[in-house]
Amino acid sequence: MSLNDTPSGERIHIGFFGMRNAGKSSLVNAVTGQDLAVVSDVKGTTTDPVYKAMELLPLGAVEIIDTPGFDDEGELGELRIKKTRQILAKTDIAVLVTDGSHELSDCDKHLISLFKERDIPYIIAYNKSDLSGKNILSDNEISVSAVNNTNIFELKEKIASLAKNYGSEKRIVGDLIQKNDLLVLVTPIDASAPKGRMILPQVQTLRDILDSNAIAVFTTEFELAETLDKLSALPKMVITDSQAFAVVNKIVPENVPLTSFSILMARYKGFLETAVKGASKINSLENNAKILISEGCTHHRQCGDIGSVKLPVLLEKFTGKKFQIVLSSGRDFPEDLSEFSLVIHCGACMLNEKETVYRRKSAELQGIPFTNYGIALAYMNGILKRTIEIFPDLVKLI
To answer: How distant, in Å, are the alpha carbons of 21, 24, 42, 147 from that of 39?
Structure first.
């Protein structure tokens, strides 16, 4: 990903669903104007979800997802259907592709019920209109042909109309600051830091500060005290990587608001209140309880990794108890959370809001406390109240 690319978590995710041989892949290729998916007359050609991040006019930055047939058969077919169901968790807009020469199948109707159940806006694309001769055009239905490009432009316009309100109001920190405010951002450079670049939440926070016509100063926790001494006035706010909370808290004056990238991302992704409530359950965990530590992206875990090393060590030190730690990453978030006493999630910068909300709701519906790295670390370092004081309504939840 280049510096100018829109991160996956900020893209509108458009999933194409339907039965085998309905023409999903052909329609994806027609909509994108690219041969993204393998096309064949053989049923089940698409065996795994195919992802493509791209600019799709008139929408802008999107991620197109071509899914396996939802009527797949056999043991492998069940696994493919499971993957397709996982895609629903991150789908902002669904396109149901059905063979327009037939009536809607039970499989099609089941998919529609899943869209409605998960509150996913959807369009029914009756494909193969070149064979059926049908010309359906209504609010959420349209006849198309991937072969001769019939109504492909109109389909994109319908998708765009459903996407127009996505992401227009969200801010990371911009709504908390004013023009010319000075913020200090603390970014540790250790073994787990990516070489030669900043991590995504730091980049996104910086951009939001600049969009607010405010000023950002970057430093590490070891240069923080000297950085503050060199400033002519105290900063409006200090934002730190959660791993440095203990050190940074001792340096930043009490009258300067202190928070973390992870806490700001929890608010940005829509689960800050849930995460604050979840962190407060850490004290009540039983000995040998099973805890899920989950990351939205996949990366090589290094010595000192926050999820696999630092959090488990701090949990046991803070509570004086032993725990069973289960790690998940990327798309492998369990559907059944009943075996866990707590879920601790990363900042979810690589997940779109739809999937983040899905994971949070999955935990809530199953009665499992849900928090994230930064809030758990702040809680166990005894500074959670201080780090969320910029959100007064949340302090009372501690």
So the answer is: 9, 9, 9, 12
Q: For residue 184, what is the domain's CATH number? A: 3.40.50.11420
Cβ neighbour number for residue 142 with a 10 Å cutoff? 24
Q: Distance between the two ends of the chain, CA-based, in angstroms?
A: 39
Residue 82 and residue 50: Cα distance in Å, rounded?
Answer: 15
Tell me the pairing of strands 370-372 and 342-345. Answer: parallel
% residues pLDDT > 70 (the chain): 89
Contact 154, 137 (CB under 8 A): yes
Which residues is 215 bridged to in the sheet? 182
CA distance 239 to 185: 5
The pLDDT of residue 3 is: 40
| 276-326 pLDDT tens trace | 999 999 999 999 999 999 988 765 454 457 888 889 999 999 999 999 999
d(CA 107, CA 121): 18
Sort strands 215-219 and 324-329 into parallel, antiparallel or unpaired. Answer: unpaired
One domain, residues 94 and 137: yes
Cα gap 12→162, rounded to integer Å: 10
Structural domain boundaries enclosing 155: 8-163
Find the helix or strand (DSSP H, E) in which 356 lies: helix 353-365
What does the pLDDT read at residue 39?
47
Of the candidates 52, 45, 51, 86, the residue with the CA atom closest to the CA atom of residue 68: 45
CA distance 209 to 212: 5
pTM: 0.74
